[in-house]
Amino acid sequence: MPAISYQLYGSRNWPLLDTLAMLYATGFNEVEGYGALFAQAPSLTEDLATAGLNMPTLHYGLADLERDPGAAIDLAQAVGAEAVFAPFLDAEDRPTDRAGWEVFAERLVAAGKPLQKAGLIFGWHNHDFELVDLGDGVTPLDIIAGASPDLKLELDLGWVVRAGLDPVHLIRTYGDQIHSAHIKDLAPQGDCVDEDGWADVGYGVMDWTAIHGALQGAGVSRYVIEHDNPNDHHRFASRSLATVQAL
């Protein structure tokens, strides 16, 4: 069984210390941090240690990383992280054609070099906008993955399905370039509207048995449970962890 982590973004509407205590009591040992959290939690390293949790992976804004890679490295080393993922592009910053995505992919390769030199893994976390067909079946995520074998992926499976693609196919396509996976479930059409259409893992439409088999075949060793907008994060955390542990 891979390591199981929890993306703290889903608990942004609750106090951090309460969240960390809840996650540990629920059975988590690992969490994943995100950009806004780092500015809001100056005692993060101590808070994690007090709660008994580790933070092996981080989401860190690309522009912030390019502006001051040393700060990202210092943070990763302080919390004991092994990998840093750039997580998102605002709509106005997204390339619109293949050539633009090729330039962006090279930007990612360059941004990752200081982190890799410091012994960290660096990569990209997708949403659905990187999964559009640019022509001949090529997507922006294909271009990103093809830019360098050292540029790893944190494949968000919920966004893969929301984009209308087959997660098992993409897992097999990217293989060992996938460092970790976001385990996120999609509610049936019209359900969970108050939670932006996301579901607790195992309570939506995703075939987790098939997905888990493909992830294990690709050697993915960390599953990061995520929900972008749960109205009850304890319910989400406990039910989702039970689903993943039963795979």
TrEMBL record:
Keywords: Isomerase. InterPro entries: IolE/XylAMocC-like, Xyl_isomerase-like_sf, Xyl_isomerase-like_TIM-brl. Residues 72-228 form the Xylose isomerase-like TIM barrel domain. It comes from Ruegeria conchae. The keyword Isomerase applies. Gene3D superfamilies: Divalent-metal-dependent TIM barrel enzymes. This is Sugar phosphate isomerase/epimerase. GO terms for molecular function: isomerase activity. It holds the Pfam family AP_endonuc_2.
